[in-house]
Amino acid sequence: MAHPVSPLAPASFPEMPPVAGVKLAAAETGIRYKNRPDVLMAVLPAGTSVAGCFTTSKSRSAPVDWCVSALRGGKARAVVINAGNANAFTGKAGTATVRAVAKTAAKALGCKPTEVFQASTGVIGEPLNPVPITGALEYLATRAAEDQWSMAARAIMTTDTFPKGATAQVKLGRATVTINGIAKGSGMIAPDMATMLAFVFTDAALPPRILQQLLARSVRKSFNCVTVDGDTSTSDTLLAFATGAAGSPLEKLKSADDKRLAAFAKALDAVCLNLALQVAKDGEGAEKLIEIAITGAENDRAAHRIAMSIANSPLVKTQLPAKTRTGAASSWPWARLAKRLSATSCESESAASPLRRTACAMLPIKKPRLCRT
Questions:
Q1: Sign, Cα dihedral of 9, 85, 155, 103
Q2: What contacts 279, CB < 8 A, 6 or more positions away?
Q3: How many helices (H) and strands (E) does the chain have?
Q4: 246 and 204 in contact (C-beta within 8 Å)?
Q5: Taking the mean position of all CA atoms in its chain, how far away is CA 350?
Q6: Which residues of 174-210 are buried (b: 16+ CB within 10 A; e: fewer)?
Q7: Are 357 and 345 in contact (CB under 8 A)?
Q8: Contact between residue 294 and residue 363 where contact means Cβ atoms under 8 Å apart
Q9: Residue pair 73/32 in contact by the 8 Å Cβ criterion
């Protein structure tokens, strides 16, 4: 049963402090929705580092293809997001739209088109007219402000029932840095990202290669550990931007394994996990949020495979909300769990998969936790 607002939604949108160097603005362009913002622009200072993780779909949308290519430059001046049309399965017309948006935004900001990143969400298969977006970009560029986080989160919503945001502050060397993130997602939620857009901004001074390593690790422990309906989309995009405006860059920083990054990495993990869980909580019609913890598996990869096999099982899902005749919650579907464990074991690459030593626990989540194996 659908709800106007998910019963799992947080009580309120979090108070999100400014991120030095990041300015936001949104506009109503009427791409699909009326009387609400549907185009968001985040303006970033010159030299901002960028990293990204994207859908594993073989049919990526035009904005995803654009971002994957632009990411090679490692720098960003803006990200433009529209809601209502995914610009996916749109062929040459879709490519022409992202080029037009990038060119117009670059002119407004005085940067290269390849420093303008893009994301689109909404209906698939319909051409996206660039004019409503390009016509708003100069206005957005001049009116962007640092305190528009709630508005930004609302501007990228489609079937979402609540805006999603998360924030953290942490010491990095001599600087105190802020990490803010916003996301959208409600359907087509599955591992390897989903019909999901997420954007993380920090004022930390980090080179693109290090930011990419940190982001990829966070994704494996957060966004790629949630599932709602088992479907993967064409538009999944997670972009991270580091403006460097907090100053005090770490000297001789060569790897994400540097111990000086430990606290920052933990804070980034927390923001990504918070956003990923909010996306799961807003799954279309969702009334329960369940954590599956696997112990005794061969390795993390095997544990992940087993957990996702259980989580995506229609048999298990239909049992979870069941009630007894007295109205009390029914017992956990252990027989169905055992069936999925056995099936996953048979599919394992290792003939000696230690199923007898594998234990599974399914627990309602009370507070965010990193995936455990």
A1: positive
A2: 164, 183, 184, 185, 186, 189, 194, 196, 198, 223, 226, 228
A3: 9, 10
A4: yes
A5: 32
A6: ebebbbbbbbbbbbbbbbebbbbbbbbbbbbbbbbeb
A7: no
A8: no
A9: no
Q: Are 179 and 169 spatial neighbours (Cβ–Cβ below 8 Å)?
A: yes
pLDDT tens string for the chain (373 positions)?
566 899 999 999 999 999 999 999 999 999 999 999 999 999 999 999 999 999 888 889 999 999 999 999 999 999 999 999 999 999 999 999 999 999 999 999 999 999 999 999 999 999 999 999 999 999 999 999 999 999 999 999 998 999 999 999 999 999 999 999 999 987 544 444 445 899 999 999 999 999 999 999 999 999 988 887 655 667 889 999 999 999 999 999 999 999 999 999 999 999 999 999 999 899 877 788 888 888 888 888 888 888 888 888 877 777 766 544 444 555 555 556 665 565 555 455 444 444 444 555 555 555 544 444 3
Distance between alpha carbon 211 and the CA centroid of its chain, in Å?
16
d(CA 277, CA 271) in angstroms, rounded, equals: 10
Radius of gyration of the chain (CA): 21
Task: Give the SS3 label for residue 238.
Answer: strand
Can you say whether the dihedral through the CA atoms of 117, 121, 124, 127 is positive or negative?
Answer: negative
Bridge partner list, 11? none
Strands 116-123 and 75-85: parallel
Tokens for 34, please give them: 């009326």
Residue 74 near residue 49 (C-beta atoms within 8 A): yes
Nearest CA-CA partner of 130 in 97, 94, 88, 85: 97
DSSP single-letter state for residue 126: S
Give the active site residues. Answer: 195
Domains with residue ranges and CATH for the chain: 23-281 (3.60.70.12), 290-364 (no CATH)
**Dist CA 264 CA 211 (whole Å):** 11
Compute the C-alpha angle 61/149/277, nearest 5°.
65
Which two three-digit tokens encode residue 18?
A: 């400014």
Place of tokens 């069936």: 339
